[in-house]
Amino acid sequence: MFGDPQYQVLFVGYQAEGAPGANIQASEGVEGFAMIDLDGEMYEINSAHADQKGLVDFVTGIQQWPERVLLVHGEKGAKAALACHYEQGKALSVEIPA
User: Structure pTM?
Assistant: First the structure.
């Protein structure tokens, strides 16, 4: 998905040292785009970090909302609360896989 501009990939929550999300977080403050190696392929990324309000503002600020949001990381209660925020207002499918 990283190479396809129709997708935006979000790493949410704690990122363990050496994990892709931690490497992306380490690029914070880099001017413009940064390059990161994921499974032997280099990708150009633009890194940003946000709390719950920032995540809600990010999705609700998109001109064309995504049809579906998957919440795959975080504590159960926090994911449920974030899902409630996303489901208010516009039609949006929010899934929390087991």
Answer: 0.51
